[in-house]
From TrEMBL:
InterPro entries: Ala_racemase (IPR000821), Ala_racemase/Decarboxylase_C (IPR009006), Ala_racemase_C (IPR011079), Ala_racemase_N (IPR001608), Ala_racemase_pyridoxalP-BS (IPR020622), P-loop_NTPase (IPR027417), PLP-binding_barrel (IPR029066), T6A_TsaE (IPR003442). The gene is alr. One of its GO terms (biological process) is peptidoglycan biosynthetic process. PANTHER family: ALANINE RACEMASE, ALANINE RACEMASE, CATABOLIC-RELATED. Belongs to the alanine racemase family. This is Alanine racemase. One of its GO terms (molecular function) is pyridoxal phosphate binding. Substrate binds at R134, M313.
Length: 578
């Protein structure tokens, strides 16, 4: 981690630009990007610039202070703020050309007075309460408020630029009821003589639930950050990319015997001999203390390792298991990020804490450095996730040498192949994939960085399933649906399965799919026929220079692999590859 910082919230600028563009395309109207509370914990300045680049026309914050801080930081875009204390400094607001959400008559008068003192117009957006029972003018106040707004506008002291309301997210019927009340408010405002440009009701949830609620502008927060406002729809379901990756590193390693007490209170005892890794993030940094023992994992070298023992103010402990021998001090750890890159999503913490993703990201502490990452720099980080291998076109024609047949005394039939580089591993996967049909099982065994993911990716490509095939991560098993007539691919990370029972619990249609299980040896004993692919790195390749960045990535050093393909059972009696 080249910045030297032990705790980093890496913010993807391209993700934020993409998300805003996606929202614009989806609604066809104006987008107000809500960046209150330090951009939902992402860093308000970083998000402000990225959102504007993505096409947001305005920024929204709660407080005047937040808006003024953005101005101080040089953000010149229109900014709307809507919650004001009794002594709000509207002089500063007018001076900074902020748009003020006005909820009652006294506020309107105070703002108009400030405008008078400054000798310029204040920009008003009326905030009306249509059923949330919070901030915003109640319907009974609308006639007087709007009439006074029209009057001040005709005097040149304010410009009524918008009208907005906020939904209670209390169901479809309630949304429509609030929308009808909002229609009434807009009508009343126009009848009073105002002509608002921006009419907005929808926040993130309504933006993705009903076009009826879009009006000509949406006022969105959580989706800008690539997170889903729905419990049952993922970021990817909405076409969004999570922008925050919470990163740390391993700062200490300890090999311990079974029964070792871990952290305060010893509420975790190691089950077997294992390696513990110390990660310098704790509840001061927004990692909920109550995650303790809940089953959350962190990503280390493309694998998911459980957080064990009580979480401290500054640090937590992960059980690296057999991975421990491969991990070095300084190796990167991802606590959450975009699951499409193979790391756990923030929703794991949110679910375990019975809260929403919003609360987790906004709670990331001030000690965590926010680092914006753009396409063209700063290049301080290796690319997140397992995009480890250069893409190889199916016609790349990489030669895989013919297997050397080893005649065992009966089953299994073992074919041994020397694989020169990641491209050849990918090609071997394609070759294997072409032999597979629904009901087939492939077990991949081999150390980190051996190329298991490259092999799985090749299998997926040959089967013609929807990608990307990456190491399965926060899910124990990932199903890749077929793009054509073939079977789906189910990719299982058995490393994290407690036993075959846990796989049964997932209720997958294993017989209707090709199953590729990493580390699955011994789990599928009842399967009649299966293929076990064992990848061995050459001896002597695990020396100090050999970082563990994940399957394939570690090995751009292009070291040869010894691969054994063993066909077990009647289906593979005459070999797998021949
Ligand atoms: C926070 C907030 C939003 C954004 O909500 P999301 O659900 O994050 O889109 C919009 N409007 C108001 C008034 C808010 O307070």
């Amino acid at each position: 981690m080249k910045t030297g910082s032990m705790r980093i919230a890496e913010i993807s600028v391209p993700a934020i630009r993409h998300n805003v563009r996606r929202i614009r395309e989806h609604t066809g109207g104006t987008v107000i990007a809500v960046i209150k509370a330090n951009g939902y914990g992402h860093g308000a300045e970083i998000v402000a610039r990225a959102a504007i680049e993505g096409g947001a026309a305005l920024l929204g914050v709660t407080d005047l202070e937040e808006a003024l801080a953005l101005r101080d930081a040089g953000i010149e875009a229109p900014i709307l703020c809507w919650l004001h204390g009794a002594a709000a400094d509207f002089d500063a607001a007018v001076e900074a050309d902020l748009e003020i959400g006005v909820s009652h008559l006294a506020q309107l008068e105070a703002l108009a007075a400030a405008a008078g003192r400054a000798g310029r117009r204040a920009i008003v957006q009326f905030k009306v309460d249509t059923g949330l029972s919070r901030n915003g003018a109640a319907p009974a106040e609308w006639p007087a408020l709007f009439a006074r707004g029209a009057e001040l506008e005709s005097e040149g002291r304010v410009r009524v630029r918008g009208v907005f309301s906020h939904l209670a997210n209390a169901g479809e019927d309630n949304d429509l009821e609030q929308a009808r009340r909002f229609d009434g408010a807009v009508e009343l405002l126009r009848a009073a003589g105002c002509d608002p440009d921006l009419i907005h009701l929808a926040a993130s949830a309504a933006t993705f639930s009903s076009a009826r609620l879009h009006y000509n502008t949406v006022r969105v927060g959580v989706v800008v950050y690539g997170l889903s406002p729905f419990a049952d729809r993922t970021s990817a379901d909405l076409g969004l990319i999570p922008a925050m990756t919470l990163r740390s590193q391993i700062v200490a390693l300890r090999d311990v015997p079974p029964g070792t007490g871990v952290s305060y209170g010893y509420n975790h005892l190691t089950q077997g001999e294992t390696t513990l890794g110390l990660v310098p993030i704790g509840y001061a940094d927004g990692m909920p203390r109550a995650l303790n023992g809940g089953g959350a994992t962190v990503s280390v070298a493309e694998h998911h390792c459980p957080i064990v023992g009580r979480i401290g103010m500054d640090q937590c402990i992960v059980d690296l298991g057999s991975l421990g021998r491969k991990v070095r001090i300084g190796d990167p750890v991802v606590l959450f990020g975009d699951p499409a890159t193979g790391v756990p999503p923030v929703e794991v913490w949110a679910e375990l804490m019975r809260t929403i993703n919003y609360e987790i990201v906004v709670g990331i502490g001030s000690r965590v450095r926010r680092v914006a990452v753009d396409d063209d720099g700063p290049g301080a980080f290796p690319p997140a996730g397992p995009a480890a291998l250069p893409p190889t076109g199916s016609g790349s024609g990489v030669a895989v040498p013919p297997p050397e047949r080893v005649e065992g005394d009966g089953a299994p039939r073992i074919e041994r192949i020397e694989i020169a580089d990641p491209e050849s591993m990918h090609e071997l996967g394609r070759r294997l994939g072409r032999r597979l049909a629904a009901g087939d099982l492939v077990i991949l065994t081999g150390p980190l960085g051996a190329g298991k993911t490259a092999l799985a990716r090749g299998i997926g490509e040959a089967l013609g399933v929807r990608g990307p095939v990456t190491s399965p991560t926060f899910v124990l098993a990932r199903t890749h649906p077929p793009l054509g007539d073939g079977p789906p691919l189910i990719h299982v990370d058995a490393y994290r399965l407690a036993g075959a029972g846990e796989l049964d619990d997932l209720d997958l249609d294993l017989d209707g799919a090709v199953v590729v299980a990493e580390w699955g040896s011994g789990l599928f004993d009842e399967h009649g026929s299966w293929i076990e692919v064992t990848i061995e790195r050459p001896t002597g390749s695990t020396g100090p220079g050999d970082t563990v960045d994940g399957d394939g990535l570690a090995d751009e050093s292009v070291e040869p692999r010894a691969v054994a393909v063993a066909g077990h059972g009647p289906r593979w009696r005459s070999g797998v590859l021949t």
